[in-house]
Specification:
The chain is α/β, with parallel strands linked by helices. The chain has one domain: 3-Layer(aba) Sandwich (Glutaredoxin), CATH 3.40.30.10. Helices cover about 40% and strands about 25% of the residues. It has helices spanning about 10-15, 35-45, 45-50, 65-70, 95-105, and strands at about 1-5, 25-30, 55-60, 75-80, 85-90. Strand 4 and strand 5 form a beta hairpin. The protein starts with a strand and ends with a helix. About 30% of the residues are buried.
Amino acid sequence: MVRFLETKADFDSFLKANKDKLVAIDFTAAWCGPCKIIGPVFEKLHEDFPNIVLAKVDVDENEETAAHCGISAMPTFQLYIDEKKIDSMTGANADKLKALVAKYYK
């Protein structure tokens, strides 16, 4: 299940609550065509990586978090462990996204 993080407080508490897991955040926008294409791939990552924790941030609805995370293009995916960003990628490349997650998944 993918959780939508609507505020910076939601983002912070989500990372804290899942600090012992690999967390993937999809920074997206409703108007973004590539986001709509890659969105279903992101939402199904748990099928290949059962212990991953997934969340989305709509950059227009949650501008504070997007700014805090330095988002300048969509889609951008960021991976976190222990509340720290460990890697990221920008673009709607499904193979690249899966490879990025596989690199850190235990």
